[in-house]
Amino acid sequence: MKKNEKLLSYLYLNKEDEIILYDKKESRIFIYDEEWAKEHETVAIHYTYNDSIDEMPIKDFAEIANNLIPFPQPNNIEIMKDFARKYSYPDLLDCLYKKGAYRNFKNLLRKYSLVDSYYAFEDKCYKKIITDWEIQFGIIEKKITKKERTNLVKLSNEAFSYHPWEYFTDEDYFTIHYLNKEISYIVLGHYGNCYGLCIYFGKEGKRELQLESMIASLDEESLLPMAIKNSYAIYFDPYDTLTPEDKDFLDGTIKEIEDIPYPSFNVFSIGRPVTPAKNSHHYKDISVALSLFNTFMEKYIEKPINSKQVFHLDITIDDDYNVKYKKTKEEESPIPYFDLSLLENENEYKKCNSTYVLDIAVSPGPVVKDGESYLPFIPILYDLNKDKIAFAVSTIAECDDYVSAIYHELDSYFKSTRAPKEILATNPIASLLGVLLLKDKDRVSNAKKKYETLEEFKQGLLDQLVSERKDTIIQ
Q1: Mean pLDDT lowest among 68-72, 208-212, 424-428
Q2: DSSP 405-444
Q3: Ranges for the DUF7309 domain (predicted)?
Q4: Domain coverage including residue 317
Q5: Same domain, 21 and 62
Protein backbone atom coordinates (compact mmCIF):
# COMPACT_ATOMS: atom_id res chain seq x y z
CA MET A 1 0.00 0.00 0.00
CA LYS A 2 1.39 3.38 -0.98
CA LYS A 3 1.63 5.79 1.90
CA ASN A 4 -0.17 9.13 1.75
CA GLU A 5 0.46 10.96 5.00
CA LYS A 6 -1.92 13.84 4.26
CA LEU A 7 -4.78 11.48 3.59
CA LEU A 8 -4.00 9.22 6.53
CA SER A 9 -3.80 12.17 8.92
CA TYR A 10 -7.18 13.30 7.63
CA LEU A 11 -8.63 9.87 8.25
CA TYR A 12 -7.14 9.52 11.71
CA LEU A 13 -7.79 13.01 13.06
CA ASN A 14 -11.17 13.80 11.58
CA LYS A 15 -12.97 10.55 10.82
CA GLU A 16 -12.46 8.36 13.85
CA ASP A 17 -16.18 8.14 14.55
CA GLU A 18 -16.85 6.54 11.16
CA ILE A 19 -16.16 3.07 9.77
CA ILE A 20 -13.01 2.99 7.64
CA LEU A 21 -12.41 -0.04 5.41
CA TYR A 22 -9.66 -0.92 2.96
CA ASP A 23 -10.09 -2.55 -0.44
CA LYS A 24 -6.89 -4.56 -0.86
CA LYS A 25 -7.48 -5.38 -4.53
CA GLU A 26 -8.11 -1.78 -5.68
CA SER A 27 -5.84 0.03 -3.16
CA ARG A 28 -8.57 2.35 -1.93
CA ILE A 29 -10.09 3.34 1.40
CA PHE A 30 -13.84 3.51 2.06
CA ILE A 31 -15.25 5.83 4.71
CA TYR A 32 -18.71 4.71 5.66
CA ASP A 33 -20.74 7.45 7.36
CA GLU A 34 -24.16 6.06 8.20
CA GLU A 35 -25.94 9.43 8.19
CA TRP A 36 -24.36 10.45 4.88
CA ALA A 37 -25.10 7.05 3.36
CA LYS A 38 -28.78 7.26 4.31
CA GLU A 39 -29.17 10.77 2.94
CA HIS A 40 -27.07 10.52 -0.25
CA GLU A 41 -27.07 6.73 -0.83
CA THR A 42 -23.32 6.85 -1.43
CA VAL A 43 -20.10 6.06 0.43
CA ALA A 44 -16.84 8.01 0.17
CA ILE A 45 -13.79 6.48 -1.57
CA HIS A 46 -10.24 7.70 -1.03
CA TYR A 47 -7.67 6.40 -3.53
CA THR A 48 -4.32 5.99 -1.78
CA TYR A 49 -2.21 6.27 -4.93
CA ASN A 50 -3.34 9.71 -6.18
CA ASP A 51 -5.08 11.40 -3.22
CA SER A 52 -8.35 11.66 -5.16
CA ILE A 53 -11.75 11.39 -3.50
CA ASP A 54 -14.79 9.81 -5.12
CA GLU A 55 -18.16 8.33 -4.19
CA MET A 56 -19.70 4.91 -4.76
CA PRO A 57 -23.44 4.14 -4.81
CA ILE A 58 -24.37 2.36 -1.60
CA LYS A 59 -25.88 -0.55 -3.56
CA ASP A 60 -22.52 -1.17 -5.27
CA PHE A 61 -20.68 -0.85 -1.97
CA ALA A 62 -22.91 -3.52 -0.42
CA GLU A 63 -21.85 -5.98 -3.12
CA ILE A 64 -18.15 -5.72 -2.25
CA ALA A 65 -18.49 -5.20 1.51
CA ASN A 66 -17.51 -8.79 2.32
CA ASN A 67 -14.17 -8.32 0.54
CA LEU A 68 -13.11 -5.32 2.62
CA ILE A 69 -10.88 -5.34 5.68
CA PRO A 70 -11.04 -2.89 8.60
CA PHE A 71 -8.60 -0.02 8.50
CA PRO A 72 -6.59 0.47 11.72
CA GLN A 73 -7.92 3.08 14.12
CA PRO A 74 -5.16 4.56 16.30
CA ASN A 75 -5.90 5.77 19.80
CA ASN A 76 -4.63 9.36 19.74
CA ILE A 77 -4.83 9.73 23.51
CA GLU A 78 -2.53 6.71 23.97
CA ILE A 79 -0.06 8.20 21.46
CA MET A 80 -0.09 11.47 23.42
CA LYS A 81 0.53 9.57 26.67
CA ASP A 82 3.49 7.71 25.15
CA PHE A 83 4.94 11.03 23.97
CA ALA A 84 4.50 12.64 27.39
CA ARG A 85 6.21 9.69 29.10
CA LYS A 86 9.09 9.83 26.62
CA TYR A 87 9.77 13.53 27.26
CA SER A 88 9.05 13.35 31.02
CA TYR A 89 6.73 16.36 31.22
CA PRO A 90 4.33 15.58 34.12
CA ASP A 91 1.85 18.32 33.21
CA LEU A 92 1.66 16.98 29.62
CA LEU A 93 0.59 13.63 31.01
CA ASP A 94 -1.68 15.04 33.71
CA CYS A 95 -3.73 17.12 31.26
CA LEU A 96 -4.73 14.01 29.32
CA TYR A 97 -6.80 12.78 32.27
CA LYS A 98 -8.84 16.01 32.50
CA LYS A 99 -11.58 17.67 30.49
CA GLY A 100 -10.40 19.36 27.27
CA ALA A 101 -7.41 17.03 27.10
CA TYR A 102 -6.69 17.44 23.40
CA ARG A 103 -6.81 21.29 23.46
CA ASN A 104 -4.74 21.57 26.65
CA PHE A 105 -2.18 19.09 25.32
CA LYS A 106 -1.67 21.15 22.14
CA ASN A 107 -1.28 24.34 24.17
CA LEU A 108 1.42 22.72 26.31
CA LEU A 109 3.22 21.50 23.18
CA ARG A 110 3.46 25.10 21.98
CA LYS A 111 4.57 26.26 25.46
CA TYR A 112 7.47 23.78 25.52
CA SER A 113 8.27 24.17 21.76
CA LEU A 114 7.48 20.49 21.22
CA VAL A 115 5.02 20.80 18.35
CA ASP A 116 7.42 19.56 15.66
CA SER A 117 8.74 16.80 17.91
CA TYR A 118 5.23 15.60 18.67
CA TYR A 119 4.12 15.49 15.03
CA ALA A 120 7.27 13.55 14.12
CA PHE A 121 6.52 11.12 16.98
CA GLU A 122 2.86 10.85 15.94
CA ASP A 123 3.84 10.22 12.32
CA LYS A 124 6.21 7.44 13.41
CA CYS A 125 3.44 5.82 15.50
CA TYR A 126 1.00 5.99 12.58
CA LYS A 127 3.51 4.38 10.25
CA LYS A 128 4.09 1.52 12.71
CA ILE A 129 0.34 0.99 13.09
CA ILE A 130 -0.07 0.87 9.32
CA THR A 131 2.91 -1.45 8.84
CA ASP A 132 1.68 -3.88 11.52
CA TRP A 133 -1.77 -3.85 9.92
CA GLU A 134 -0.35 -4.40 6.43
CA ILE A 135 1.64 -7.40 7.64
CA GLN A 136 -1.36 -8.83 9.52
CA PHE A 137 -3.59 -8.76 6.42
CA GLY A 138 -0.91 -9.72 3.91
CA ILE A 139 -0.78 -6.35 2.15
CA ILE A 140 2.96 -6.36 2.63
CA GLU A 141 5.26 -9.08 3.90
CA LYS A 142 7.77 -8.62 6.68
CA LYS A 143 11.04 -9.79 5.18
CA ILE A 144 13.00 -12.48 6.91
CA THR A 145 15.99 -11.05 8.80
CA LYS A 146 19.62 -12.16 8.60
CA LYS A 147 19.38 -13.50 12.16
CA GLU A 148 16.32 -15.56 11.18
CA ARG A 149 18.04 -16.86 8.03
CA THR A 150 21.08 -17.88 10.06
CA ASN A 151 18.89 -19.73 12.56
CA LEU A 152 17.08 -21.61 9.76
CA VAL A 153 20.40 -22.74 8.29
CA LYS A 154 21.60 -23.86 11.73
CA LEU A 155 18.40 -25.86 12.36
CA SER A 156 18.53 -27.37 8.85
CA ASN A 157 22.16 -28.43 9.22
CA GLU A 158 21.26 -30.15 12.49
CA ALA A 159 18.42 -31.99 10.74
CA PHE A 160 20.82 -33.04 7.97
CA SER A 161 23.34 -34.34 10.53
CA TYR A 162 20.85 -36.98 11.68
CA HIS A 163 20.68 -38.46 8.14
CA PRO A 164 16.96 -39.22 8.63
CA TRP A 165 16.72 -40.85 5.15
CA GLU A 166 18.63 -43.77 6.60
CA TYR A 167 15.65 -44.49 8.87
CA PHE A 168 12.67 -43.43 6.75
CA THR A 169 11.67 -43.96 3.12
CA ASP A 170 9.97 -41.42 0.88
CA GLU A 171 6.66 -43.23 1.45
CA ASP A 172 6.81 -43.04 5.25
CA TYR A 173 5.36 -40.09 7.10
CA PHE A 174 5.01 -39.13 10.73
CA THR A 175 3.06 -36.54 12.68
CA ILE A 176 4.27 -34.59 15.72
CA HIS A 177 1.81 -33.09 18.23
CA TYR A 178 3.17 -30.28 20.40
CA LEU A 179 0.86 -28.03 22.45
CA ASN A 180 -1.84 -27.00 19.94
CA LYS A 181 0.29 -27.74 16.87
CA GLU A 182 0.06 -30.73 14.54
CA ILE A 183 2.91 -30.99 12.03
CA SER A 184 3.50 -33.86 9.62
CA TYR A 185 6.70 -34.76 7.76
CA ILE A 186 8.02 -36.75 4.83
CA VAL A 187 11.78 -37.41 4.67
CA LEU A 188 13.35 -37.45 1.19
CA GLY A 189 16.56 -39.22 0.20
CA HIS A 190 16.21 -42.89 1.11
CA TYR A 191 16.75 -43.87 -2.52
CA GLY A 192 19.53 -41.33 -3.05
CA ASN A 193 17.64 -39.11 -5.52
CA CYS A 194 16.75 -35.99 -3.57
CA TYR A 195 17.64 -35.21 0.04
CA GLY A 196 15.27 -33.08 2.05
CA LEU A 197 12.25 -32.72 4.25
CA CYS A 198 8.61 -31.88 3.43
CA ILE A 199 6.55 -30.21 6.16
CA TYR A 200 2.75 -30.04 6.42
CA PHE A 201 0.70 -28.15 9.01
CA GLY A 202 -2.58 -29.19 10.62
CA LYS A 203 -5.17 -31.75 9.58
CA GLU A 204 -5.52 -30.20 6.11
CA GLY A 205 -1.78 -30.46 5.59
CA LYS A 206 -1.81 -34.09 6.68
CA ARG A 207 -4.60 -34.81 4.22
CA GLU A 208 -2.54 -33.36 1.36
CA LEU A 209 0.46 -35.37 2.56
CA GLN A 210 -1.54 -38.60 2.50
CA LEU A 211 -2.84 -37.87 -0.99
CA GLU A 212 0.62 -36.99 -2.26
CA SER A 213 2.10 -40.13 -0.73
CA MET A 214 -0.61 -42.25 -2.38
CA ILE A 215 -0.06 -40.70 -5.81
CA ALA A 216 3.73 -40.97 -5.57
CA SER A 217 3.44 -44.67 -4.72
CA LEU A 218 1.27 -45.26 -7.81
CA ASP A 219 3.20 -43.14 -10.28
CA GLU A 220 6.59 -41.81 -9.22
CA GLU A 221 6.93 -39.84 -12.47
CA SER A 222 3.58 -38.08 -12.14
CA LEU A 223 3.66 -34.28 -12.33
CA LEU A 224 0.61 -34.03 -10.11
CA PRO A 225 2.25 -34.19 -6.65
CA MET A 226 4.12 -30.94 -7.29
CA ALA A 227 0.80 -29.14 -7.61
CA ILE A 228 -1.22 -30.56 -4.72
CA LYS A 229 1.18 -29.61 -1.96
CA ASN A 230 0.19 -27.02 0.59
CA SER A 231 3.41 -27.14 2.52
CA TYR A 232 7.09 -26.29 2.92
CA ALA A 233 10.04 -28.25 1.60
CA ILE A 234 13.73 -28.07 2.52
CA TYR A 235 16.15 -29.51 -0.03
CA PHE A 236 19.87 -30.17 0.42
CA ASP A 237 21.97 -29.57 -2.71
CA PRO A 238 25.53 -28.51 -3.66
CA TYR A 239 25.98 -24.74 -3.76
CA ASP A 240 26.53 -24.49 -7.52
CA THR A 241 23.15 -26.16 -8.20
CA LEU A 242 21.16 -23.64 -6.13
CA THR A 243 19.02 -20.96 -7.78
CA PRO A 244 20.09 -17.29 -7.56
CA GLU A 245 17.26 -16.72 -5.04
CA ASP A 246 18.52 -19.56 -2.86
CA LYS A 247 22.09 -18.27 -2.98
CA ASP A 248 20.90 -14.78 -2.12
CA PHE A 249 19.00 -16.20 0.87
CA LEU A 250 22.15 -17.91 2.17
CA ASP A 251 24.42 -14.90 1.61
CA GLY A 252 26.09 -13.85 4.83
CA THR A 253 24.84 -16.88 6.79
CA ILE A 254 27.35 -19.51 5.67
CA LYS A 255 30.75 -19.80 4.07
CA GLU A 256 30.66 -21.36 0.60
CA ILE A 257 32.35 -24.76 0.39
CA GLU A 258 32.20 -26.87 -2.76
CA ASP A 259 30.29 -30.17 -2.83
CA ILE A 260 28.71 -29.66 0.58
CA PRO A 261 24.89 -29.85 0.69
CA TYR A 262 23.24 -26.50 1.39
CA PRO A 263 19.60 -26.05 2.44
CA SER A 264 17.03 -24.24 0.31
CA PHE A 265 13.62 -23.34 1.72
CA ASN A 266 10.56 -23.58 -0.51
CA VAL A 267 6.86 -22.79 -0.14
CA PHE A 268 4.21 -24.88 -1.95
CA SER A 269 0.59 -23.82 -2.36
CA ILE A 270 -2.08 -25.68 -4.28
CA GLY A 271 -2.10 -24.62 -7.92
CA ARG A 272 0.54 -21.92 -7.36
CA PRO A 273 4.18 -21.68 -8.47
CA VAL A 274 6.83 -22.86 -6.02
CA THR A 275 8.30 -19.84 -4.23
CA PRO A 276 11.27 -19.42 -1.88
CA ALA A 277 10.55 -18.75 1.79
CA LYS A 278 11.12 -15.03 2.24
CA ASN A 279 9.05 -13.58 5.07
CA SER A 280 8.89 -13.87 8.83
CA HIS A 281 5.69 -15.93 8.70
CA HIS A 282 7.54 -18.60 6.71
CA TYR A 283 10.43 -18.41 9.16
CA LYS A 284 8.20 -19.01 12.18
CA ASP A 285 6.54 -22.03 10.57
CA ILE A 286 9.74 -23.66 9.36
CA SER A 287 11.78 -22.96 12.49
CA VAL A 288 9.13 -24.48 14.79
CA ALA A 289 8.81 -27.52 12.50
CA LEU A 290 12.59 -28.03 12.37
CA SER A 291 13.03 -27.62 16.13
CA LEU A 292 10.42 -30.31 16.81
CA PHE A 293 11.85 -32.56 14.09
CA ASN A 294 15.35 -32.32 15.60
CA THR A 295 14.01 -33.05 19.09
CA PHE A 296 12.29 -36.15 17.74
CA MET A 297 15.27 -37.37 15.67
CA GLU A 298 17.69 -36.96 18.59
CA LYS A 299 15.57 -39.43 20.60
CA TYR A 300 14.60 -41.66 17.69
CA ILE A 301 18.11 -42.56 16.53
CA GLU A 302 18.91 -43.83 20.03
CA LYS A 303 16.36 -46.59 19.52
CA PRO A 304 14.91 -46.63 15.98
CA ILE A 305 11.96 -48.81 15.05
CA ASN A 306 13.12 -51.55 12.72
CA SER A 307 10.50 -52.28 10.11
CA LYS A 308 10.70 -53.24 6.45
CA GLN A 309 7.15 -52.12 5.88
CA VAL A 310 5.84 -48.60 5.35
CA PHE A 311 4.76 -47.20 8.70
CA HIS A 312 3.36 -43.96 10.05
CA LEU A 313 4.25 -42.64 13.49
CA ASP A 314 2.11 -40.51 15.76
CA ILE A 315 4.38 -38.56 18.11
CA THR A 316 3.70 -36.34 21.12
CA ILE A 317 6.28 -33.91 22.49
CA ASP A 318 5.35 -32.43 25.89
CA ASP A 319 6.35 -29.15 27.54
CA ASP A 320 9.57 -30.73 28.84
CA TYR A 321 10.41 -32.01 25.33
CA ASN A 322 9.87 -35.64 26.23
CA VAL A 323 9.15 -37.69 23.11
CA LYS A 324 6.45 -40.35 23.11
CA TYR A 325 5.40 -42.21 20.00
CA LYS A 326 3.72 -45.36 18.86
CA LYS A 327 3.37 -47.21 15.60
CA THR A 328 -0.07 -46.65 14.12
CA LYS A 329 -1.99 -48.30 11.36
CA GLU A 330 -1.79 -46.69 7.96
CA GLU A 331 -4.79 -44.46 7.48
CA GLU A 332 -6.84 -44.62 4.35
CA SER A 333 -6.05 -41.57 2.27
CA PRO A 334 -9.10 -39.31 2.18
CA ILE A 335 -10.28 -37.85 -1.11
CA PRO A 336 -9.23 -34.25 -1.69
CA TYR A 337 -11.65 -31.47 -0.98
CA PHE A 338 -14.27 -30.74 -3.64
CA ASP A 339 -17.82 -29.43 -3.89
CA LEU A 340 -19.91 -32.28 -2.46
CA SER A 341 -22.93 -31.18 -4.51
CA LEU A 342 -21.13 -32.67 -7.52
CA LEU A 343 -22.05 -36.09 -6.11
CA GLU A 344 -25.72 -35.26 -6.68
CA ASN A 345 -25.38 -34.06 -10.30
CA GLU A 346 -27.30 -36.24 -12.75
CA ASN A 347 -24.84 -35.85 -15.66
CA GLU A 348 -27.11 -37.43 -18.27
CA TYR A 349 -24.69 -37.18 -21.18
CA LYS A 350 -25.16 -38.68 -24.61
CA LYS A 351 -22.79 -41.62 -24.87
CA CYS A 352 -20.35 -42.76 -27.54
CA ASN A 353 -18.52 -46.07 -27.93
CA SER A 354 -15.06 -44.61 -27.33
CA THR A 355 -12.73 -45.29 -24.43
CA TYR A 356 -11.00 -42.15 -23.13
CA VAL A 357 -7.78 -41.99 -21.17
CA LEU A 358 -8.04 -39.11 -18.66
CA ASP A 359 -4.81 -37.51 -17.54
CA ILE A 360 -4.28 -34.44 -15.34
CA ALA A 361 -1.07 -32.61 -16.19
CA VAL A 362 0.31 -29.54 -14.44
CA SER A 363 2.01 -26.66 -16.20
CA PRO A 364 5.54 -25.91 -14.96
CA GLY A 365 5.07 -22.31 -16.14
CA PRO A 366 2.75 -19.95 -14.22
CA VAL A 367 0.05 -17.73 -15.72
CA VAL A 368 -1.10 -14.40 -14.28
CA LYS A 369 -4.74 -13.61 -13.55
CA ASP A 370 -5.84 -10.41 -11.76
CA GLY A 371 -2.24 -9.83 -10.71
CA GLU A 372 -1.86 -13.27 -9.10
CA SER A 373 0.23 -16.16 -10.43
CA TYR A 374 -1.23 -19.65 -10.77
CA LEU A 375 -0.09 -23.01 -12.12
CA PRO A 376 -2.72 -24.27 -14.58
CA PHE A 377 -4.04 -27.81 -14.31
CA ILE A 378 -4.55 -29.41 -17.72
CA PRO A 379 -7.20 -32.15 -18.00
CA ILE A 380 -6.50 -34.17 -21.15
CA LEU A 381 -8.81 -36.69 -22.83
CA TYR A 382 -7.10 -39.14 -25.17
CA ASP A 383 -9.46 -41.10 -27.47
CA LEU A 384 -8.00 -44.61 -27.38
CA ASN A 385 -10.09 -45.86 -30.31
CA LYS A 386 -9.11 -43.05 -32.67
CA ASP A 387 -5.57 -42.60 -31.26
CA LYS A 388 -5.95 -38.83 -30.94
CA ILE A 389 -6.35 -36.12 -28.32
CA ALA A 390 -10.04 -35.32 -27.96
CA PHE A 391 -9.79 -32.48 -25.43
CA ALA A 392 -7.33 -30.45 -23.39
CA VAL A 393 -7.82 -27.16 -21.61
CA SER A 394 -5.69 -25.05 -19.28
CA THR A 395 -7.64 -24.67 -16.04
CA ILE A 396 -6.85 -22.23 -13.23
CA ALA A 397 -7.96 -23.14 -9.72
CA GLU A 398 -8.03 -19.98 -7.56
CA CYS A 399 -8.60 -21.94 -4.35
CA ASP A 400 -7.80 -25.33 -2.84
CA ASP A 401 -10.84 -26.87 -4.54
CA TYR A 402 -9.02 -27.62 -7.79
CA VAL A 403 -11.06 -30.82 -8.33
CA SER A 404 -14.30 -28.89 -8.92
CA ALA A 405 -12.61 -26.49 -11.34
CA ILE A 406 -11.37 -29.39 -13.50
CA TYR A 407 -14.74 -31.16 -13.18
CA HIS A 408 -16.65 -28.21 -14.67
CA GLU A 409 -14.35 -28.07 -17.70
CA LEU A 410 -14.88 -31.77 -18.44
CA ASP A 411 -18.59 -31.55 -17.71
CA SER A 412 -19.02 -28.73 -20.26
CA TYR A 413 -17.15 -30.76 -22.87
CA PHE A 414 -19.26 -33.90 -22.36
CA LYS A 415 -22.44 -31.82 -22.52
CA SER A 416 -21.42 -30.30 -25.84
CA THR A 417 -20.31 -33.61 -27.35
CA ARG A 418 -20.68 -37.11 -25.87
CA ALA A 419 -19.32 -38.97 -22.89
CA PRO A 420 -17.20 -42.13 -23.35
CA LYS A 421 -18.38 -45.61 -22.45
CA GLU A 422 -15.28 -46.01 -20.27
CA ILE A 423 -12.53 -43.86 -18.71
CA LEU A 424 -9.00 -45.08 -18.02
CA ALA A 425 -7.51 -42.87 -15.30
CA THR A 426 -3.77 -42.17 -15.09
CA ASN A 427 -3.80 -41.12 -11.40
CA PRO A 428 -6.14 -40.99 -8.37
CA ILE A 429 -7.41 -37.47 -9.15
CA ALA A 430 -8.35 -38.52 -12.68
CA SER A 431 -10.06 -41.61 -11.24
CA LEU A 432 -12.08 -39.48 -8.81
CA LEU A 433 -13.12 -37.11 -11.61
CA GLY A 434 -14.10 -40.02 -13.83
CA VAL A 435 -16.45 -41.40 -11.19
CA LEU A 436 -17.94 -37.95 -10.46
CA LEU A 437 -18.65 -37.45 -14.18
CA LEU A 438 -19.86 -40.90 -15.25
CA LYS A 439 -21.60 -41.74 -11.94
CA ASP A 440 -20.50 -45.35 -12.33
CA LYS A 441 -17.27 -46.58 -10.77
CA ASP A 442 -17.43 -49.71 -12.93
CA ARG A 443 -16.88 -47.53 -16.00
CA VAL A 444 -13.68 -46.06 -14.54
CA SER A 445 -10.44 -48.03 -14.13
CA ASN A 446 -6.72 -47.35 -13.86
CA ALA A 447 -4.65 -47.03 -17.02
CA LYS A 448 -2.21 -49.94 -17.07
CA LYS A 449 0.41 -48.33 -19.30
CA LYS A 450 1.60 -45.09 -20.86
CA TYR A 451 0.37 -44.06 -24.31
CA GLU A 452 2.86 -42.59 -26.76
CA THR A 453 0.41 -40.16 -28.38
CA LEU A 454 -0.67 -38.84 -24.98
CA GLU A 455 2.87 -38.48 -23.66
CA GLU A 456 4.05 -36.64 -26.80
CA PHE A 457 1.08 -34.28 -26.60
CA LYS A 458 1.70 -33.53 -22.92
CA GLN A 459 5.34 -32.73 -23.54
CA GLY A 460 4.52 -30.44 -26.45
CA LEU A 461 1.75 -28.69 -24.55
CA LEU A 462 3.88 -28.10 -21.48
CA ASP A 463 6.73 -26.76 -23.63
CA GLN A 464 4.29 -24.35 -25.25
CA LEU A 465 2.92 -23.16 -21.91
CA VAL A 466 6.39 -22.54 -20.57
CA SER A 467 7.34 -20.46 -23.60
CA GLU A 468 4.13 -18.50 -23.94
CA ARG A 469 3.22 -18.17 -20.23
CA LYS A 470 -0.46 -17.88 -20.98
CA ASP A 471 -3.61 -20.01 -21.09
CA THR A 472 -3.66 -22.44 -24.01
CA ILE A 473 -6.88 -24.15 -25.08
CA ILE A 474 -6.85 -27.02 -27.53
CA GLN A 475 -10.02 -28.75 -28.62
Answers
A1: 208-212
A2: HHHHHHHHHHHHS-B-SEEEESSHHHHHHHHHHHS-GGGE
A3: 155-250
A4: 146-328
A5: yes
